[in-house]
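Reopening this one. Same input as before:
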Amino acid sequence: MPLSNLMAVAWSRDSDPTATRFDARDFNIDTEKFAYFALSVVWRRAVHEWNKDIPRWELGRFAEIMRRYLADEDAPFPQHTVVIVMVCSDQSPRRTWSVPHEARDNLGCLDFAFDVRGIRFRVMMGQVPAAYRSMNIKAPYCPILYADRQRRQDEAWRLIRQRAGEDSQARRSGVTS
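Same output, byte for byte:
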């Protein structure tokens, strides 16, 4: 049975309004494998230019420790690194995948995301805000998120349109920010 179907009927660990959180261990999920997979995809983007439109990423001080972790050179999971896993409850993301891309949330850290068949992976490195650290799949209670991705995307676009309308209205009235 698909993980999203199991999560749809399971008891969550909290009722966060942005995404319901579950403990991955409740589903016998090996969070180490999810974390390793997510970091390996980011690493591939850092060591190879896929094409001219998809340039290499520069990981700075995180590159060597990530390489050692992935090469199993007795390196622990990289410090100051967060992997967030969100299982999509809606159907459309389950039919798609995306090229790893930089998240554009301006959080002051390296921030990458990609989608694989209904699962959104987000890898953050550096000074990760506390709210995101609490969602790290490597945290003690192994959180895995469950959310309607399309609804979240629609809400984000609504806010963008709202802000654009406010900016436009301010320009017409001569007020600038």
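So the earlier flakiness isn't reproducible anymore. For the record, The longest helix spans residues 149-173.
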